Amino acid sequence: MHELSVCQGLMQQVERVAAAHGATAVERIVLQIGGLSGVEPPLLERAFEIARAGTVASGAELEIRTGPVVVQCQECGGKSAVPANRLLCNYCGEWRVRVVEGEELLLLTVEMDM
Ligand SMILES: [Zn+2]
Asked: How far is the CA of 46 from the centre of ligand 1 (A)?
């Protein structure tokens, strides 16, 4: 499962953040997942249940926000927010576009107990 390795990488980030702040426990984690990141939120939630065991975040809640997909047109230069399965310019209908947002997986917030 791809999501499990994603989640384990994430837990390392969370543990680093917690250690840097001297936190004893992490209460809540907020993630933003781009529509093109290839990560399925329900699978990521299941992976999180496994990955958090024995870590500083073992009792943490996970909130997943789905980020937009934004493309920039190579023809007219316009930026459009588009569905992940329809990567076309909203202004001129051009298909030669560059993805500027949507492939990311961001750790937005780590709420800690000090
Ligand atoms: Zn265009």
From this structure: 39
From the CA of 77, how far away is ligand 1's center (Å)?
A: 6
The SS3 assignment for 94 reads coil
Give the Å distance between the CA of 82 and the centre of ligand 1. Answer: 12
pTM for this entry: 0.82
Query: Which pLDDT tens digit goes with each residue over 15-50?
Result: 999 999 999 999 999 999 999 998 999 999 999 999
- Domain limits, the chain: 2-67+102-113
CA 74 to centroid of ligand 1, rounded, Å: 7
Tokens of 71: 């493309």
CATH of domain 2-67+102-113: 3.30.2320.50
**H or E stretch including 21?**
helix 2-21
